[in-house]
Every structure is written in structure tokens, then in C-alpha cells.
Amino acid sequence: MMNFRTLATSTSFLCTYVSNNVAFINTCTSLRSSCLQNRLRFNCKHSRSTPTTQLYQTRDASSLPEKTTIETIAESLRSNAFKKVLIVSGAGVSVAAGIPDFRSPGSGLYDNLHKYDLPYPEAIFDVDFYNQNPQPFVTLAKEIWPGVNYRPTLTHCFFSLLDKKGILRRVYTQNIDGLEAVAGVTEEKLVECHGHFRSSACIKCRTPFDAQECQSTMIEQGEAPKCNSCGGSVKPDIVFFGEVMPSRFSELVHYDVASSDLVIVLGSSLMVAPVCNIPDWVKSNVPRLLMNRDLVGTFGKVNDVFMEGDCDDSVRELCRLVGWEDELDAIHASTQYS
Q: Whose CB among 27, 147, 256, 305 lies 3.0–4.6 Å from 91's, allowing a Cys bridge?
């Protein structure tokens, strides 16, 4: 959801599953684990090099203030006490958009790929497999291209609201659906840990390829574009198994965790490093809020708050407490019809 390499990039969707409105890859949060199980090759130079014990404080409950609650967090937001809110988001934030997560039994992406005769579910996001047979991913891309079939959820719009208010430090998303940008989060405030569809390149020589042409070739012609330089297959710049993760994560995460004054984790299993470690890298006196169906990671300390349930419901409740509900709804409405 490596956590920052969460390999969201390696989710497996396919045509029929997609046509049934159940197909779009989000944040490959579970991909990394599955990748290891299938002994896929994964080159992750940045994630394991992050020495958490040396660069970041260990969270020590003895140094924490009195217990944090959702009410104290809401009051601090209302009084402008928080200036640098750090977001970590996973596949759960996009479920309300109609995009399934990876792990849910019966409805998750991995449970619905057996029809496509893949050697293993993650093959659809394996760079070597794509080089040999790009058609499964091309079929998938026709459905999952950001902004084509899916619109931002309330949670994505909450990120945009924080950005508009000038208190968003950064959003670290494990998803590749691009809905944060569609909701209005500025590119400077966004770290897409598993890449995005806004640019493309050849998988062999890495020569950049026009993103619009890549999109039209895949969506309208149903084919993988060919590189003008070497003739290799072209794909969007989402991270496949066998590819190095974007450097933007390692360039920004050190500063962001050191400067944040509130961390909110939403819709993530916190199982893939290094993204899963971000909540533990912040200073020990920084409040942490988890909006999730399950209690995950190391949440449960004195200044932690767990809002159990769907992300959109929790976001709406927080905005109601702060007094931002009308603004949240206005942003959401604008994204549905733009």
C-alpha cells in the first residue's frame, strides 16, 4: 500500500471484471506481499535504504500529552492550530468511487482474475510479462484511466479542502487512480508512490512518449503504443513489478514527517513498506488519526484516534465537527459534473 512502494502499481484488473464495474487498480497495497509470495522480481532501491531508527524519533508513549480524541482534533482544526497535515491514503479511499480494493474476499481484485488465465494475479503488473503480452493491461487501462469512468470520493475532496485551506503538508497515496488530482489536490502537494498516468515511456529504453497519444492508443485502439526510438512497448508511468519506484518519495518524506503536526491515515492496511512506516516516523507528540475499517499498524497510543468504518463516513463526521461540511460537499459536487 515497502509501503511507499506499495506496489500499488501491480494490481491486476481485467476487462470483464472491469466491465462489471469492479475493475480498477488502486494502490497495489497488497501487491507487494503477493509479489514476494510469487517470487517476483522487485527492484526497490529507495524503500529499504530509509533508516527509520536513525532519521526519525521512536514514538514513546511516556512523552505524549493527555489523550487525544476526535473532538480535540476537530477543535484544533477549527482553531487553525494544525498547519501541516500529513495524509497517508490507501485503496480504501476509492472504494466509494466504485473501485474495489485488493484483499476483500469475493470482491477484491485478486479474487476476480482467474478468468484471464494469468500465470499469477500480479502478472498484469509485471514489466516482463507486459513486454511479452501487454494486452491484459491494455484492456484494463481502458477502464481505469483516471477521470474517465470514476470520480473523486468525499475523502479525495477532503484532501483538496485541506489544500485549499493551506494546511496540507502532503498526500502520500498508494493508489494509481489519480483521483486526488481530479479532486483538485495540487501536484506539488501530492506524492503518488506508485506512479501515475499523466506521463508515459518505453519500458525498454525509457524514452518519454506523449501521454495523450498513449491514452488514445490504449483506450481507442486497444493496443500498446510502440516506442518511436526502439520499437519497445510503451506504458503509463505507473510502477510495475521489476521497476524502480519514483524518487519523489525519498526526496520529500524526510522533511514532511519532521515538519508535520497531524497525521491522518485513511483506507490502508499499512502492510507495505516504506509507506506503512510513515505514521511511525513522525515526532512522538504528533497526533495520529486513523480512518479505516480495521485497526492497523501501531495505532493505539495515547495520542492516537481510531475512527472505525468507511472513509467517507468518517471524513464527513470530522468535517461536521469542524464546521467544514458545506465546503466539503461543494467541492465534491464540483468534481462530479466537471
A: 27
Kindly report, residue by residue over 161-209, the tens digit of the pLDDT. 999 999 999 999 999 889 999 999 999 999 999 999 999 999 999 999 9
Strands 208-209 and 262-266: unpaired
- Bridge partners (DSSP) of residue 85 are 168, 262
Q: Could you give the angle at which helices 311-322 and 70-78 cross, rounded to 10 degrees?
A: 50
Set of cell numbers at residue 204: 525498454
**219-223, 227-231, 270-274: range with lowest mean pLDDT:** 270-274
Average pLDDT of the residues of the chain: 80
Nearest-angstrom CA–CA distance, 53 and 260: 18
**Please, which pLDDT band fits residue 23 given cuts at 50, 70 and 90?**
very low
Question: Is the bond into 119 cis (omega within 30 degrees of 0)?
Answer: no
SS3 206: coil
**Residue 200 CA from chain centroid, whole number:** 19
Per-residue pLDDT tens over the stretch 78-101: 999 999 999 999 999 998 998 866
What order do you get walking across the sheet with 262-266 strand by strand? 190-192, 168-173, 85-89, 262-266, 288-292, 304-308
User: HSE of 96 in the Cβ direction (CA atoms, 13 Å)?
Assistant: 18
Q: Are 204 and 185 in contact (CB under 8 A)?
A: no
Closest CA to 136 of 152, 157, 119, 153: 119
Rg of the Cα atoms in the chain? 19
Backbone angles phi, psi at 85, to 5 degrees: -90, 125
Give, as one character, the DSSP assignment of residue 173.
Answer: E
Whether residue 158 has pLDDT greater than 90 = yes
Point out the catalytic residue in the list 46, 156, 194, 196: 194
Whether 194 is catalytic is: yes
- In single-letter form, the type of residue at position 239 comes to V
Going by C-alpha positions, the residue among 139, 156, 175, 225 that lies closest to residue 11 is 175
Q: Cα(244)–Cα(147) distance, rounded to whole angstroms?
A: 26
Nearest CA to 193 among 252, 143, 134? 252
